[in-house]
Amino acid sequence: MNIDFAPPEMAQGKALLLAISGGLDSMVMLHWLNSWHKSYPEYFPKIEVAHIHHGLRQAADIEAQLVEDFCHSQQLPFHIHHLAGLGLDGFPLQSSGGMEARARQARYHFLNAIRQKRGLDWICTAHHADDQVETLLLRIMRGTGVKGLAGVHPLRNDGIWRPLLAYPLEQLQQYAQKHGVPWREDQSNQSSQYMRNRLRHGLIPHLNQHFPQVAPQLLAVAQRAQSIRQKLHVDMHDWRISAQILTNPSPHPPLRNQVHLDLLSVFPSGEIDLEQLQIRSRQAGDLFAPLHLRTHRRKLKQFWQENGYPSFERDFLPLLAQGSTILWIANRVVSGLHKVTPQTQQILAISVEVATKN
């Protein structure tokens, strides 16, 4: 088997921005997609190339020149960005993570800026099956759930496409040899400084020696986890919230108001307005005051952990929110901020259900 195959039908008509480092995997991706672009221009009407110059190694200039020369020979638009000090002109870094995380953030800032400016559809990266195996092992060793076991997805919702994800490095090497694809080895791939390299050159060869099917089995686990996540996924636009205001005593029938969830939120004063309540999935920084603690807010993540909510379930439970404050974990527990007391004059009864599709 090789990668001389047709791209998926969903890719047809997409304008692509290829992230090319000059290494074997990315140059194979460039050669392959460009071949399709030249032979079937209606399939990929536009292809452009972006190269990130990290400026951390002496060979970086040679790699950049390799990519630029190839693009020039194929008449492909070429964009280069220099990450001086791991910064990004016009795009200040927000992450406080390590060098790898900061560099990754900077790369995607640049790639998304080029995609938007040039009117392109998808960003293509050259992750392959061996990368997926390494990612899965890293996540397993650090502790993960269904989301982590799903690995990296071949096509993300934000238009990041990884067309080589199903193919191991050995097949990319065969393709490069067959088609005479130029490329350069990134010497940092040999450094034991990075955990991924230690897996690549140490643990994985050892596992392959004793368990020859470990790589395909891990890839199968990722596919099953992706399938589970798709089945568990709750499309928030299919949820409706039904609210009923109960006043006692009241000569009038209860006021009922059923609206689409994304039209709702709550005022910070504590007075609830049905037109502005928001129901959504969890977000970083969410706070929750459990009923028994009343006004003492804590991180929602801490509440999940203390009460044994499975990690996969946390992604899919609808939350009624006021900004970053969670008022209700749907059909589970209400916040102590709006506890019913003997002094309560009005009660807002809310139920959440999946909207029936016509």
Write the layout of secondary structure elements.
Layout: E1 16-19, H1 24-39, E2 47-53, H2 60-73, E3 78-82, H3 99-118, E4 122-124, H4 129-142, H5 146-149, E5 160-161, H6 169-179, H7 195-210, H8 214-232, E6 239-247, E7 255-260, E8 278-280, E9 287-288, E10 298-299, H9 300-306, H10 311-314, E11 319-322, E12 325-329, E13 333-334, E14 346-354
Parallel strand pairs: 1-2, 1-4, 2-3, 4-5, 9-12
Antiparallel strand pairs: 6-7, 6-14, 8-11, 9-10, 11-12, 12-13
Sheet with the most strands? 6 strands, mixed
Q: What fraction of the residues are assigned to beta strands by DSSP?
A: 15-25%
Would you identify the regions where 5 or more consecutive residues have pLDDT less than 50?
88-97, 245-272
- What order do the helices and strands follow? EHEHEHEHHEHHHEEEEEHHEEEE
Remind me, CATH topology of the largest domain?
Answer: Rossmann fold
Number of domains: 2
By CATH, the superfamily of the largest domain comes out as HUPs
The CATH architecture term of the largest domain is 3-Layer(aba) Sandwich
Structure class: alpha/beta
- Helix count? 10
Q: Distance N terminus to C terminus?
A: 44 Å
**Alpha-carbon Rg, integer:** 26 Å
* Amount of helix: 25-40%
The total count of strands amounts to: 14
Mean pLDDT: 78
Label the overall shape: elongated
CATH top-level class of the largest domain: Alpha Beta
How would you explain this protein's 3D organization?
With 358 residues, the protein is α/β, with parallel strands linked by helices. It has two domains: 9-232, HUPs (Rossmann fold, 3-Layer(aba) Sandwich), CATH 3.40.50.620; 236-354, no CATH class. It contains ten helices and 14 strands. The strands form three sheets. Strands 8, 9, 10, 11, 12 and 13 form a six-stranded mixed beta sheet that branches. Strands 3-2-1-4-5 form a five-stranded parallel beta sheet, with helices on both faces. Strands 7-6-14 form a three-stranded antiparallel beta sheet, with no helix packed on it. Residues 88-97 and 245-272 have low confidence and may be disordered.
